[in-house]
Design brief:
With 508 residues, the chain is of the alpha/beta class. It contains 17 helices and 18 strands.
Length: 508
Amino acid sequence: MKLDNSIQSLDLVVVCNDERNDAWIELLLKQVSCLYMLKAGRCRKFVPDDPDGLSIPRDRLPKKVDAVLFHSSDMKLWCDIQIKATYTFEFNTPGAPQLKTGVIPIFRQTYPYFAVQSTDVDELIAFIAGERQAFPSMCIPPLDVLPAIVTLCQSYLEFVNHESSEIVTRPEWWLEGLGLLKHSQLEQSTYQGTLKRLDAEWENLNKLDISRSHLDRLIASLVIQQPKACEVASQAITYPNIVDAYNELKLVLSSNANAKALEDAVDDATSLPKRILAIRGSCVGVAAATAASLVLGIEREILEPENLETIGKPPRESVLILAESQVCGLPFLRLQNFAGAILVLSTESFSTLKRKYRVLRFGQGSHAAITVPPSLADLTSKLKILVPMEQENLKFFQKEMEALKSFYDQEVIPCLQKLEHPTDSLDSATEEIAVLIEQTRTNTPVACHTVVKVGDETLQIQQHLLNALSRLREQKNLEPTISYLQAIFQQWFKLVQSAAGENLKLAS
């Protein structure tokens, strides 16, 4: 029920111990009748005409509310308050909460860029109020398998009248395009996992109860089911099967994907990359590389995630197609001297992606993004305008990353070694660690707010560090505490590397 034209009669609780709590309050304040904030042991109650809120004791919190939004690292606090909620939502720094029974994840980055928009909150409130049946957009996981199949269908329909059209009728071409073949063999576990993701994506999107019979028939035509394994099918896939499956997918995805012939797709061969790359693990990334390779007549290479140290070997004029989930590995690739252009597949604009991933800001014209599912027209046009990264820009980026490595080697490692073999006193070595921890918390907030598992504990990096510092000061069980601290800093180093240094002077 609405109290006026904009305010819903709803009670919500936000549980978060940092400034993200304030960001949520600002977005939700004039949307609901009563809003509660639980932050750092303090409780405040907000109503629409009181933006400052009223401090209340925790026992004054309601026993039942319409919804709770909690930060992943504050799950214990959420459990402790024992509030029953009709809906429970979870958010975290990267926007990728682990799935939990009875909890709806929010797939939006919340730190340092708070990516939740007012339109997201409008959908959230409508959903909680029962005015919207579909999950809010920010609660739907990123698509991968369905847009990958759409892209392959578009390639087939573009290529079907070509003299070499039998290529796109082979089941192995489709399985390769989905990243399911490795050394010409079907990866059984990957195949089964892909089917599960397909089911989940279809269930999330199919609110009109559209039949999936044609898509299922297409998937079934790719493999021969055996009692203990699956084999690649040998019979060619038929034109009606692909067209019918494509039409089903277009209805569900409500996309603007089209399968019309591409005019002048290869009108200027000099502007095309020499090789198109993708990394196995993303169906839509591999499918986009496969489609572009086929239509543009360019060599395609699928890289194995465990062998990325060889990525420096492709021609400099290569383009690497990445799903957004793979962008965090790009700093490592640049350190391997990969200077090729990057095309990101995402549901978000490139300007938003650049705010989220600093590594995409290096090199004018060397990075771009297209929406998922990608149309062949968009895909080919982007591939023709992307340029390799200039060596000067690549070296500049590598220099920053080397500074991070120097900081780790020259500041972090010696501090840890002093704990193991203190030259002065343990108290002095401990205080050096305290200064180092404060420095890393101040200068690398993204990494320090990230939830990781170290040993048996799953906490934010900064909480791990503070726990270890507290144990050091007690001077009990020093050996396991020092090992714990070493493991934390190793995790921290990997995370800061993936964030491309966070654009901070670590040694300042």
